[in-house]
Fold:
Amino acid sequence: MADAGTRERLLGAGAELFYAKGYNAVGVQEVCRAASAHKGSFYYFFDSKEALMTAIIAERRGVPGIVQGAPPPGVRGRDLAIMMWDAATAEVETQHRLEGHIKGCPVGSVAAEIATQSESIRGAACGVLDFMTETIAEVVRRAIAEGDLADDADPGAIAERVVAYIQGALLLSKTRNDPKVFADLKAGYLQLLGIESQSKAPRSR
Amino acid sequence: MADAGTRERLLGAGAELFYAKGYNAVGVQEVCRAASAHKGSFYYFFDSKEALMTAIIAERRGVPGIVQGAPPPGVRGRDLAIMMWDAATAEVETQHRLEGHIKGCPVGSVAAEIATQSESIRGAACGVLDFMTETIAEVVRRAIAEGDLADDADPGAIAERVVAYIQGALLLSKTRNDPKVFADLKAGYLQLLGIESQSKAPRSR
DNA sequence: TGACGAGTTGACCGACCGGTCTACAAGCCT
DNA sequence: AGGCTTGTAGACCGGTCGGTCAACTCGTCA
Structure:
């Protein structure tokens, strides 16, 4: 990030700071300092602080830990779903160990703070939620095609429930500041997906 | 609230404003104006803005729409659970109709914003989450005793999952600003509770 | 060479931030 | 009456807020 363009440095520094402290708790000055930029440059690239936050969310590629890019081919749908939760668990544990806090979802936390205050940020957050839902729906479709889920399951509806559950689980573990909270919620995730835990249905793999 | 004591007016005005706009977006001055109080009085009753927010959460009785006070006697557990979701749905719809926005959970939204920034507010939010979890666990226990749920179900674990799901569902409907999002997530709530929807299992009632 | 656009620099704006402080008013006890 | 507690009133503090602005540097192209 050191020799990246000023605009990219501002996006990166903003993403980190807003994620760590929230939108209103971080000032434009602070973002500039972290990005080694000056206020004039900030307002050369962005119309406002709100525009920066909107761009950060809109230009986001995936959600760290749970959804990054398209699901890799060659992996069974149900295994992929399990790997996604475990990756998020690892991310939560790492944050807690290194920073002492669990920061939750970078999009969800900001959305909770300002969805009622900024239409443009709220809209950008919706886009990321749509992306998460579609990614999980794709995984569900794969699991149906592979016979791991009943073929009358509704991938869109299931994915929406799962996204809600993930957001809630991240919020709970953030509030309790305990990685164990997130890990213990895995069973509900599998239940919503319709994937039985291995102890109950030890078939496959 | 008009002739309530100053402290109570500050608590009430703070609760409303923080719920509507978030913690950092509301200033002490604004709370005072809304409460018809002066800054001197504010700092006579509260050590800081943070102390006000902590008191607002800690002194909260229940969560509007989903959990208010102990569950009433004489109502079947599974019916109670359904009533709770429907009450929350009604609250979400009312907010959207009257204010144009869905504000989510008053505790969850604040927790998402500042759980990493204030230990005292985070702690108070934990208390409310504990209360929600315990209330739902009680409902689950009642449903087990009434034979609507398998008696090997774990009320505590189920309740924790359900609380996560409720928080996530509120966050999603807030972000999408659409009451239908919340209503459509009911099936996942029933699934996590282990209560089949009526169309699939038309027994009882 | 000189004009031009892209981007940088940092002083500056008024408003507001959370918080402090002194003065004072009213009720109650002795 | 005098003193004490409880609470009110609002000016004031340094600092920061989001945002503006004119001056400047520098590479490019004619």
Notes: Chain B is about 65% helix and 0% strand. Chain B touches chain A through 46 residues (CB under 8 Å). The longest helix of chain B spans residues 119-145. Confidence is low (pLDDT under 50) at residues 199-205 of chain B.
